[in-house]
Amino acid sequence: MHATDPRAGRIERGLALARGGRPQAARRLLAVVWQQLSPIDDAPLRVDCARLMAELQDDPHDRLCWCLRAVTAAEQVRQSCEVPLPLYGFYPTVLCALADAYRLVGDDDRAQACEQLSSAGNVGIHRLGEAGLREMSAFASARIAGRLGVPLPVQDPWAR
């Protein structure tokens, strides 16, 4: 789905617009993409779109809302793939962004809780050992290559 989905390309275009100093254009494009994504079937794309939208928000409360959307979608991905890790072990960067968003709105307790979960996730990932890290790295590489339209002979390790 991710590899050939034109919406993934539009999310990448949004990232390029943001990096090119056009955050408003990026927000407009990503808002359209968000409306096209299914809350049930498009969780990986929703994670990517929501994470980028969070980074583009000027208002800290809007940023927090988008981070919470990313966390919700990340949990859907984790559950649908039957990943044998809790959310914080599967998407620690989503929780880091959520911690930053909580800190920006002045909720230091929730920010600290998210940071602790994210740290635990990083530790958990390293406990997978060398083979587990290789599988995760291969999956990430395949996902990136798929977005760029470059096929790789890598199977999704979570799709077993």
Automatic annotation (TrEMBL):
Protein name in UniProt: Uncharacterized protein
Organism of provenance: Candidatus Frankia alpina
